[in-house]
Structure formats: C-alpha cells, structure tokens
Structure to design on (662 residues):
C-alpha cells in the first residue's frame, strides 16, 4: 500500500512539473539576461577586452605649447594666432579645410543635390543655413568671427575658456582709444590671450560640446543624447564618459585621420567595417564591437546571438535625455504672434521655452524612449530641391537599411517632429531667411523671409506657402547606461514591446505563427500523453511484479 | 488748469529721468566697465573669497530698470566681494553700470559673462 502511495506521489509530481513548465518559457531568457548583471569577478569577454583596450588612461604630449616662443607675442587678431599655429603645424590648415567640419557639405553626396548644412540639406529645426549665408548659423563654424576664411584652431584645441573673438574686438577697441587706461587694459587682455593660445590640447568634451551640445540653437535642441549634461557626466549617464569612471573624451572613439573626425552620418556610412581593435588597430572609427567584440556577453548569454541584427545601443541606451530635456516638437506655423505689440517668449517645465514669437511652439521631453529602425549607417536627407508630398509626414531625414542588408542593425533613434513651411505650388520645402536684418526673426513676415531665403539659395518660390508635417531622425549612440539598466528581453520580445512597429520578420514573444503555435502545443500535448501513459505503465507493471 | 500743470510736471519728471538714465549710461565706457567688472572677481578669487573667477551676476540677470535701482541706491552687497567693490572709483562704477545696463535682460543685446 505504501509503495502504491509513493508511486502515486511520483506521478503527481511529474504532472505538476510538466504542467508548470510551459508557464516559464522565459526561464532560459531570464538566466541569460541575469548574467548581464553579474558582478565583475566573472566578467563577460567583451568587458574584459574593453578594459584591456583602455587600461592606459594617461595622456601624454610631445610638446608643451607654453615653451614655444612664437606664441609669446601680443596678438591683435585671430588670424595672427592661426599663422602662429601653422608656423609649426604646416599642413593642418590644408587638411582641415577639406573636412566636413569646415566645408559643412558631404562631398560623397550627389553634387547636383549636395547634402550638408552649407549644401542643400534642410531640417525641421532652424530649417536651413541658406547655404551658410545666414550668419547666426556660422557661430558654430570653426573660423574667426563667424567667417569662413581663416581657421580658428582653438575652437577645437583651446583648453581655456576665454572668448577670443570678443577679446580681439576689445583689444582693438582699447588700442584705438589710446588713453593710458585703455592701453593698460589692452595689455592685460593680450596677456590673457597669450595664456589661452598656449593652453592647447586634444579636443575635450567641452570643445566638441560647444557646438554639438547646442545644435539647433540651444542646449539639447537637436540631439537627444548630446547636451550640456555630457560635459561632465557621471557613470550613470554614460558608462564610457563618466568622470567617475573611464572619463572618455569624445576623441577616444571619434578617431581622426588628416583632421577628418570619424562618426559623421550622411549619405555614406561612417564605417563599413565591423572590426575589433585586435583584428585591426587602425580602423577609421571606433564602434562598440571595436572594444567589446561581436560576442561581448558570456558564452551562454542569448544576447550574443543578437549582435548581427541588433545594435548594442538598442539595449544599452534604454532612454535618452536622462538629465536635460530635449526638443521633440517644433511648430513653425504658430510663429509670429505678439503680446502688447511685442515679440515674446513663454516658458514651460524645466524653464524651457514653449513658445517664441520668432520661432513658434515647442515641446520638450525627458527620459525619452527611442524609436527603432533598421539602419546601415546611412541616412537619406531631404534637400530644398526635392519634391515632397505634403499630404503625408515629410521625412526630412530617415535611416536607410533593411533586414536583408548584412550591415543593418536595429538601431535606436530620436524622432523630432514639427510643422515646417513649404511651397504649395512647387511642392518643395522652403528656406526662409531667419537671423539676418531682413530675416523672419526681425520682421515676422513669412512672405518676405521666404522670398529672400529662396533667392539666397537660388531656388524658385511660387509665392504660396503652407506648413507640412515633418520628421527628422537622429541616431542615439551616447548616454550608454550601466549594464544593470540595459533592457530586459521582454522589453522587445512582447506583443506590445518596443519593436512592435518593426515588421517583415518573425520575432519570438511578439509574433504569432499559427502553424508553429499549433505544432508547439501539439508537441506539448503529446509529451503529456507520453509521460502519463509511461507513468501509468510503470505503475501497473511494478504492482504486477509485487503481486507475483 | 491744475490737470494741465500736473500733466506737464509729470512729463517733465519722466523726461528728465529718462534723459538722466540715458546720459548716465552714455557717460561710462561699457568696454572698460566689462573688464573692471571682471577684474573685481579675478582679484576676489585670488584673495580666496570666491571659488570662480567669473562674476556672480551676469548683465542679463537684471533688467535695465533693476540695474539702475542697484546703482542709484548703491546696493553693491548683491555683488559680493565687498573689499574690491569698496576700492572702485566713481568712474569705475559708472563704467560698470554702463556695461551692465547696456547688456541687461531687456536690452537689445543681453549678455552673459563667459
């Protein structure tokens, strides 16, 4: 009798486990994800490799600029400073003037439809630079006094906060006054300039950020993953740049050849090769794989099987704009209102402008969840020469790539939406003149600003304009979160997960394939039946043996 | 009649005040004021009273009317660095006022001390 009860218990336990198992299909996933979060004692290979690649954090130089006599002079203009730089760095200016940082055009694009800020490209922020004729845009051009003539080497290499353009204007002003006080102040400023000119180094986060954190005319306006919070981030905001961790400067990944800084994204990919530094230590752009390899997780981790289809950024940047808000909406159609006959600005949450007479309505967001697209590293950018369909959302930029392309990965993006002016008859986007004395920001006159802006770029304007719904995308690649905050499997492998909108492929947990489901359940049912009959058989055979 | 006299008086007071402000702002040297203002904080920083060499208040921190009130009433305690402010001459103060007033929040060119 006891034996019979024991056998019954075994059968019951067997059934119990068999019934429960299907309710924990993620068991293997959970263990895989969990291993992402283990302590450092048992590091993943990609992490070990990255630590090895970056173990020497010490910077070293072969020169001390303070010791160069040519820099010990009373500079009176920026051009004189550049001449002093070129005296030693004889090829630097020629190199730099061929780079996209100087030309603001993508020379790999079609010359008839030249992409780039100084080319024909447009966006749904400040729309256009009018082919670099709108002077306020040139504040970020690396030349002296917002002119595209002489390179200002210190924009990228200066380690001193002094505003040299302002300093030189003031020096000239004081020298012109010629009274004793003024001459003394001029000498003082020249001493400050000398200090600044001698304080030279590799570009820091601050150098790059002076433009790239403020793209679109303000902190965090354009990029969702680049704003002033990245000047001195902590590890929680960016594991690589965190000042309490690796403290990477931008140049650690954005390597340079002949002053061409890697990483730009236009019509051609920034990098076509996915190599680790062990395979090739002179690759043109450092990517995640360069330091972490394409199997960065532990061997049993399911995430390793994703690296050929999912970009590391997709899981490791769960949200962007985590400290400062980023602009997500810009409605130009609302611009032009006045209060008491005057232009005005309304501020909203985080003390960010939500309405400006000269620019229209804005929306800002923090901790934004990215949207995901297949991306091969190239973008399709709209120009003011392209014909548009104003009935649909006009994609002013969109990522290129597909599941079929071996270089494509699922990649996270910020999508900035808005309403932007277009030519109703010619069906093209328009480029209103904005900051100039006759621009929209002064006059609030759309007709006049569009006429003048289109004249500046040599394009026709019918005289009729409207506002089209537009979108503009930015790849998200900075603000890499600590591993504990990377996305779990079910964030995407779920019916309404983050990849719900990506179609054209089967994804477990998200999609249902009827035949596969029926087949799966049939197998489970057959297994149950097998277990049941097997157990039943053993039960009766054993009892029979005892009776014998 | 009384109304007319009152109106003329008010208009005169307003005109003199405005002219006074404009003249006051024009008398100083804004460029010199900017450097004198910055030097106050450089010296104060060197003395160890403040952590940064940058001025505590940007010109755009106040409106033109607010700067005028500060200088009319000589409320210089808002600037900190008392020792340095005490040493400034009347001309220095006028120059600083001209700079701050000329780049106030409601001026055509609001400025921050970079």
């Amino acid at each position: 009798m006891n034996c019979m009860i024991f056998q019954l218990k075994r059968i019951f336990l067997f059934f119990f486990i068999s019934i429960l198992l299907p309710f924990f299909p993620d068991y293997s996933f959970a263990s895989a994800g969990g291993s992402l979060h283990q302590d450092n004692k048992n590091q993943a290979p990609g992490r070990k490799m990255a630590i090895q690649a970056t173990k020497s954090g010490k910077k070293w130089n072969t020169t001390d600029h303070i010791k160069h006599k040519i820099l010990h002079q009373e500079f009176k203009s920026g051009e004189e400073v550049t001449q002093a730089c070129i005296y030693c760095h004889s090829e630097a200016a020629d190199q730099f003037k061929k780079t996209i940082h100087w030309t603001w055009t993508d020379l790999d694009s079609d010359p008839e439809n030249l992409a780039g800020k100084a080319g024909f490209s447009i966006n749904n922020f400040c729309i256009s630079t009018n082919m670099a004729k709108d002077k306020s845009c040139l504040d970020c051009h690396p030349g002296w006094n917002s002119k595209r003539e002489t390179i200002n080497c210190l924009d990228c290499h200066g380690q001193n906060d002094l505003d040299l353009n302002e300093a030189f204007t003031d020096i000239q002003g004081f020298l012109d006054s010629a009274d004793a006080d003024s001459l003394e102040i001029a000498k003082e400023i020249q001493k400050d300039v000398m200090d600044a000119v001698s304080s030279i180094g590799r570009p820091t986060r601050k150098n790059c950020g002076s433009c790239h954190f403020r793209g679109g005319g303000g902190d965090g306006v354009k990029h969702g993953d680049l704003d002033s919070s990245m000047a001195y981030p902590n590890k929680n905001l960016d594991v690589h740049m965190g000042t309490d961790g690796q403290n990477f400067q931008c140049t650690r990944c954005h390597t340079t050849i002949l002053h061409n800084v890697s990483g730009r994204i236009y019509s051609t990919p920034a990098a076509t090769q996915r190599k680790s530094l062990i395979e090739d230590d002179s690759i043109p752009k450092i990517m995640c794989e360069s330091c972490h390899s394409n199997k960065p997780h532990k061997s049993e981790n399911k995430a390793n099987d994703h690296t050929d289809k999912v970009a590391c950024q997709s899981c490791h940047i769960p949200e962007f704009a985590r400290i400062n808000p980023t602009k997500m909406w810009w409605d130009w159609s609302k611009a032009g209102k006045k209060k008491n006959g005057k232009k005005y600005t309304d501020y909203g949450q985080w003390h960010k402008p939500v309405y400006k007479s000269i620019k229209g309505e804005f929306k800002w967001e923090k901790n934004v969840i990215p949207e995901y697209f297949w991306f091969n590293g190239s973008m399709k950018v709209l120009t003011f020469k392209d014909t548009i369909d104003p009935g649909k959302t006009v994609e002013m930029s969109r990522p290129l790539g597909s599941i079929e392309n071996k270089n494509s990965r699922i990649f996270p993006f910020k999508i900035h939406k808005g309403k932007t002016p277009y030519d109703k008859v010619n069906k093209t986007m328009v480029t209103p003149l904005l900051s100039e004395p006759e621009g929209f920001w002064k006059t609030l006159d759309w007709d006049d600003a569009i006429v003048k802006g289109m004249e500046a770029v040599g394009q026709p304007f019918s005289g009729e304009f409207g506002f089209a719904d537009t979108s503009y995308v930015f790849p998200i690649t900075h603000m890499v979160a600590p591993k504990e905050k990377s996305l779990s499997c079910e964030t995407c492998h779920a019916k309404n997960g983050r990849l719900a909108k990506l179609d054209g492929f089967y994804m477990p947990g998200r999609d249902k394939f009827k035949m596969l489901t029926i087949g799966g359940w049939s197998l489970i049912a057959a297994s149950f039946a097998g277990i049941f009959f097997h157990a039943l058989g053993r039960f009766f055979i054993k009892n029979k043996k005892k009776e014998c | 009649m009384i109304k007319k006299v009152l109106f003329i008086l008010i208009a005169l007071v307003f005109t003199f005040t405005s002219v006074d402000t404009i003249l006051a702002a024009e008398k100083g040297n804004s460029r010199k004021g900017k450097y004198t203002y910055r030097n106050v904080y450089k010296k104060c920083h060197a003395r160890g009273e403040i952590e940064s060499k940058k001025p505590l208040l940007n010109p755009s921190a106040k409106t033109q009317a607010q700067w005028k009130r500060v200088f009319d009433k000589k409320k210089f305690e808002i600037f900190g660095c008392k020792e340095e402010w005490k040493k400034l001459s009347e001309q220095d103060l006028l120059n600083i006022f001209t700079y701050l007033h000329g780049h106030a929040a409601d001026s055509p060119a609001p400025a921050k001390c970079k």
